[in-house]
Structures are given as C-alpha cells and as structure tokens.
C-alpha cells in the first residue's frame, strides 16, 4: 500500500466515509496517519456515581433528562441528569446545545470531566461524552479523541486507523538512524503507533517527544541551510556615511531611544558587508520602526542606492510615505508613493522617475512588484508587517535588483525568543523594546455588558475633553447565527442612542480603498469623534488624538490581535484607555486577564504562544503548511537538542539526498521560511 494512496483504497472506506474525510481535509493514507489525536480520555479508572469525589472523574452512565436554556446574550446552558445503578448526578455544558440530541437516545456513555462545587451544588462541568459502544474493545482503555472537523467522528477515525495498523508498523524511518540512537528516540512508526494506540501515558509522551523533535529538527535544518545559502550570495556594499547619518539624527524632532540607535547601527554594519543583510526588526506598536528604516534609507541614498518600502495596505503605505517625506525630503532625499490609487499620467511619470533614479525612496503596496516597476539601482528593501505577504510577493520585490538587495523585514507582532530562534534561524534580529519618551502606559480594563452605561459615560468624558475614540467590532454585517456585534448595527445604534450628539464614522473591509482613505483622513483631522470599525485599523494607523478604544466581543479575539488593536491609542502624551467588552457576563478568560495586567508585547507574545501555539507568524496560508502538530515552542530543551543536531548535520556536510523523506520536508520549509 502506498502512503500517498487515496483513503478509498483502504478496506472499510466507502464513498460516504471518503467524503467525510475529504471534507475534513483528509484525502490520502498519509493525511490520516498524521491526523493526530487532540487529547486522550483514560477510561481505565471509571468510578460509580456513589463513589465520585471532587476533581477530574470518569463515570459510565445514561442520561435521564436533558435540556438547553438560553440564559443571556451569547450563552446557552445545557443541563442533564445522569444515572447509573448506584445513583444520580447533575452535569452542565456551556454553549454545547448539540448535547441534547446526542444524549436523548438513551445510550450509555463514558462521561469524563471536572466534578466540582459550582452554582451552589456539585456537578460534572463540561464533560466529554463518548458512547460506550463506540470505544475500542481492548484491554487498554486510553482512548484517543480526534478533532471533529465538519462533523467527522472520532470512532470513524479510530476504526480506519485500526485497519491501517499493520501498514503503520512498516513505515520507513524519516530521520537518520545515528540521530535516533544518539537522542534516544523511538522509531517513526513506533511513535505513530504510540499516539494512535497508546497503552499508557508514557507511550503518548514518548511518541510526542519523537514527532515533536522531528518537526523542530526539520524547521531548524531548513533555517540553517537558508543561512548557509544566504552567506554565498553577493550583495551591494554600502559604506557608512557618518555625516549623512548624523544630519538625519540631528534634525529629528525627538531623541532616538537606545534600542533604535542599536538597531540602526546593526543595519549600517550589515550594509558594509558583501553578504546581503537579512534582518528582522521587531518592535512593539509605536516603538519607532519607521524612523529606523528611514535612517537606513538615508544612508543608502547618500551612496546612490534606492530603497523600496512595501506595506500591506494603502493606509499604512500612505502613512509611511508621509512620515518619511517629513524626515527625509528636507535632507534632499526624494520620496515617492506607489499604490493602486495612483493612476494615469501620475503613475506613468512615477514609473519613469523610479527607472531613471529620480526617486530615492519608493513606498508602496503590492503595486511595487508589478512588471512595469523598474528600479535604477535598488539596494535596500523594507517589508513592513512581512507576515502579511506571501513568499512569492516578497521575492518578487527582491528580484527587481541586479544583485540581492539588503532586506529588512519589520513586524509589530513581537515574536517570542523561542519561536524566533526556531523559525527565523537564518535571520539576524533587532528588537525595539522601549516606549518613546513621554508616552504613558495604556490603562486596560475588562468590562461586562451589564456595565455598558457606565462605560459610555467614561468614553463621553474623553470626547468632552477633545479626544477621539475607536469602537471595534468583529463582523461587518449582522449575522443572527453568530452572537457578535457587527459594525453596521453598532454604527446605527450609537448614532441614535448614547452618542447621538457625537460625529460617528464607519470603516470596514468591504468599502472601496478611496472610501476607507476618506474616512481615515476625516478621523485623523478630528472631524469624527467615534470611529466604528472592524479590525482594518489593526495595523499602523496613527491618530495621536485618539485616546480610547472599545473592543466589543473581546473574548473572541486572539491575544496578539487585541494587543495590536490596543496600539491604535497611546500614541501621544495624553493618557489612553483600552476597554475590553465581554460577549456575556461570564468570568474573563486568562487571555483577557493577561492583557489587562500587561502592555508589554513581548511578554504577551510568550503567553499567546503557550495558549495558542505558533500563531500566524508566517501568515495564514504559510502557517497552515508549517503543520506543527506536536512541537511546542515553550519546550526550550527539545528546541536546544534539535538545534544542536541541525547545526552538526550542516557542519558535517552530509547530503540530504540520502534521506528522501527528510529532504522533501526540509525543502518545503526552506521555501516557506526563507525571506529572501
């Protein structure tokens, strides 16, 4: 049997089952074998209801009565009375109304969850429910639970994997044998068997160690090989012009922070080397990355080199162009802006000036990578919010130079050190970790919908003082199926309700670029008091007079995104506020508690990594392909082991061709993670 054969070729997989798998994104045998359990239920220790004690417990019971009630906006509670031969107990599920249908048929289930004192009684809270007839009949009772994608049931996955068990046993090894021995790892096939058919908790741990190690080793090896390949490239030599840099710094209306100076010096040193720079500049929102890029562009222009700065949106590109024009044009450095809004004769004239070298710094969106854009001598490329661009887009800009230009990738999403070391092993990293002088910490508070009136009064106090506010919603249009605020409804509600005496603006992604720009320009000029918006304002928009941001349904956002949104305020000397409105009156999540107590993006990035995994460091499509199922970036010991082995592998000069499976994975990751 071939690992890439379609699942229909497996005994027991008919057309209907194959379609279920296909909907879940599982098409080949390999897809299913690598579809690992999300958790395990240990049914080896089942207690009778009469013997149940507080803590994590598993019982075998039937359901006597089950019902769902909608208790408040966004919350449904399902309660059930469970019974066995020894007694009865209550169980509760939050926002799981499908349990009514599941439990009403009278089947016997294994219920596994926390037995605790809550709402003035002892109850089983949010237990899993596995039908007894669906659990494997074997001596061990550790049952793997798989993700229920598009209704795919765990028992269907388990049944087909049982049929594939002999095939898994015979799978080829994917790592060099000497590495397996030295690191005391189990084989690839044993690891998969341990995770799909565990006999003990130790089996699961050893299986995860082996597959997690391999995921990290492959990523780190790809990064090491990228770094090696980068060292063989020939770039532009841009010597340090001390006078030009000093003039730039002297005319700034503020003093550079120490971390800005350090980052700028690292870039200047990179410019002097023959090898092209490959550097990531990461800095929290408002830490001054654009100024550092501007200083580097000034240095490049003094030696006759052009700089290209690519941003993901027109709003952000326009903002960068305005900032850089103010910083550079008084020094004789010419700045141009190329976006979709630049049309006709103006666009043609800009193309011509770029080709002739009459523009030193070209700021733009994806428009920069179009075939018509020809540079005179492109020496320095800046890609802002680089994870928003695909590999091909980044490389399309770099190819517009006769040699590999120096590359500075910038991100306002702080990357945890462990993740940066792993995924960006080929990059040098500069970090801006200081707040510009005079900026105050943003005061952040979680609010319950019950206290909305008091919150609106606080916001109005800020508006009376001449400040402005953002209100952020998750959806554009109302959707009754999703109990979340939409910008359209919120805009209407605020206009006729609590803020009918204020000027309110509306912004969302379905608007045309010109409409969006007009709204943002109005807001920046102070013609709008409250801007009701989706997350299109998340990156880079700079309105210093805005001091309040209210984020509706804040519990539906990721930690990194909440921190990015919060960065829209706190951009002046005025005290700023971030209010996180819960979807309902339940207790705030850990995510919200963490962001309430800290505005340090690097600390929050570490927390987010622990809560969510690697996140979207490379953007949605690419992160999906990275497919880190097992490795956790918090496991610094495993990272260190894999990193040491990857370095030894490269230094020994071993040829990847000998290891076919490994070579395929490494080449894929090289393409995904390579910035230049």
Q: Name the CATH superfamily classification of the domain at 443-598.
A: P-loop containing nucleotide triphosphate hydrolases
Instruction: Look at the structure and give the mean pLDDT.
Output: 86
Radius of gyration: 28 Å
CATH class of the domain at 443-598: Alpha Beta
Find the CATH topology of the domain at 443-598: Rossmann fold
Quantity of strands, as a count = 20
Q: Approximately how much helix is present in the residues?
A: 25-40%
3D structure, described in words:
By secondary structure, this protein is α/β, with parallel strands linked by helices. Among the domains are: 1-40 and 145-170, DNA polymerase, domain 1 (Orthogonal Bundle); 44-134, Nucleic acid-binding proteins (OB fold (Dihydrolipoamide Acetyltransferase, E2P)); 242-272 and 288-411, P-loop containing nucleotide triphosphate hydrolases (Rossmann fold, 3-Layer(aba) Sandwich); 443-598, 3-Layer(aba) Sandwich (Rossmann fold), CATH 3.40.50. 39% of the residues lie in helices and 19% in strands. The protein is built from 23 helices and 20 strands. The strands form four sheets. Strands 10-11-9-12-13-8-14 form a seven-stranded parallel beta sheet, sandwiched between helices. It starts with 14 loop residues before the first helix and ends with a helix. The model is unreliable at 615-625 (pLDDT under 50).
